[in-house]
Design a protein that fits this description.
By secondary structure, the chain is of the alpha/beta class. The protein has 2 domains: 43-158 and 275-305, Rossmann fold; 161-274 and 308-335, Rossmann fold (3-Layer(aba) Sandwich). 42% of the residues lie in helices and 18% in strands. It has helices at residues 7-33, 59-69, 91-102, 114-123, 160-174, 189-204, 220-227, 243-252, 261-265, 276-291, 313-318, 325-328, and strands at residues 43-48, 79-84, 108-112, 129-132, 153-157, 180-185, 208-213, 233-237, 256-258, 270-274, 302-303, 307-312, 333-335. It has a 7-stranded mixed sheet with strand order 7-6-8-9-10-12-13, with helices on both faces. Helix 4 (114-123) links the parallel strand 3 and strand 4 (129-132). The longest helix is centred in the first third of the chain and has 27 residues, at 7-33. The chain is elongated and about 65 Å long.
Length: 337
């Protein structure tokens, strides 16, 4: 039995088909003409105002590699910019450098060292700041507490008191005859905290000490000469990688312990410092957690847990100094040549 379709019904079906087709075409056309919504790539600014910046020793590259391992690759799904200053700087300059980073509309600032951290904190209260090394952030006035920072600052801090005390202990252990130490410090507030800890440790060990504060590298020779009588060891806390302390120690054939590994690479005798590469790995995790939505106010601040003892054995030989095997065996790195 044949069914006959009436003309009116056919018209309705044809109309519906045309209507559906037209709707689909209109939708596709609208999609093609609409502006595409591209997700903004997050930006991270790494700021350092140290004379021996993190970039010079591969720390910046290590930090970027650590973030890549956690899913954020520079140039693909994250943009990292580096802002270094290779000169001794003031807090005024630190705030100016931080303002330049803030103007780039970064999502996170990684602040390496105390001057950068104070500058960043003084410049923004909204952009998350991840501290990298530097002093105790509570003593420095950056946060309310390590457990609950309560603001826009979190990260991995240094352990000033521990390093200072350990430095004095290493000098005495390595050279038992040491009796009078000259503690060389610059004007930075962090150095004052280190100095106090070193003085307390020296007192506990029964050592005499003289503290010398200098305003610039040019002041070092005269300050050392003034401190000279009876000094048989140096403990150097300074932003400057200066040759003056090394020349003083070499001329008198006395041991010296420095605040940076760069100083030992350049001929200084010893250093005891935080392992900044291990810290970089932890800093990277803070950055990623913030980019993924966590708030710095509730992210507890960690402190350094691993340290590096670096000894320049070549310098020891040149100065006629003998470092006990018990100390050498604990060294992270020994420079032979």
């Amino acid at each position: 039995m044949n069914h006959r379709v009436s003309a009116p019904a056919l018209s309705r079906r044809t109309f519906l088909r045309h209507a559906v087709a037209l709707g689909a075409a209109t939708t596709l056309s609208a999609c093609a003409g609409a502006p595409s919504t591209v997700k903004r790539v997050p930006r991270v600014g790494i700021l350092s105002l140290q004379p021996a910046p993190a970039s010079s020793s591969g720390l910046a590259e290590a930090l970027v590699a650590d973030m890549r391992d956690l899913g954020y690759e520079n140039g693909k799904n994250i943009q990292v910019s580096f802002h270094w200053n290779n000169e001794v700087d003031t807090d005024v300059r630190g705030a100016k450098a931080a303002a330049e980073v803030v103007a780039l509309q970064v999502d996170v600032i990684v602040a390496y060292g105390n001057v950068a951290q104070r500058g960043a904190k003084a410049t923004t209260s909204t952009i998350p700041i991840v501290i990298f090394a530097g002093p105790d952030p509570v003593e420095a006035g950056l946060v309310e507490s390590l457990a609950r920072p309560g603001g826009n600052v979190t990260g991995v801090a240094g352990n000033t008191a521990l390093m200072s005390a350990k430095g004095i202990e290493l000098l005495k252990e390595s050279f038992p005859s040491v009796s009078r130490v000259a503690i060389i410090s610059d004007f930075d507030p962090d150095r004052k905290r280190k100095r106090r800890a070193a003085e307390d440790a020296a007192h506990a060990l029964g050592l005499d000490f003289v503290t010398v504060e200098v305003r610039s590298a040019a002041d070092v020779p005269a300050a050392l000469e003034a401190a000279d009588p009876g000094v048989d060891a140096l403990l150097v806390f300074s932003l400057w990688v200066s040759p003056h302390e090394r020349a003083f120690a070499a001329a008198r054939r006395i041991p010296a312990l420095y605040a940076t590994e760069v100083s030992v690479d350049n001929g200084g005798l010893m250093t005891y410092v935080e392992d900044h590469f291990e810290m970089a790995r932890r800093v990277a995790s803070y950055v990623v957690r913030i980019l993924n939505g966590e708030q710095p106010a509730t992210m507890p601040i960690e402190q350094a847990t691993k340290y590096r003892l670096v000894i320049n054995l070549k310098t020891a030989r040149e100065q006629g100094l003998t470092i006990p095997q018990s100390v050498l065996s604990r060294a992270t790195r020994v420079i032979e040549q």
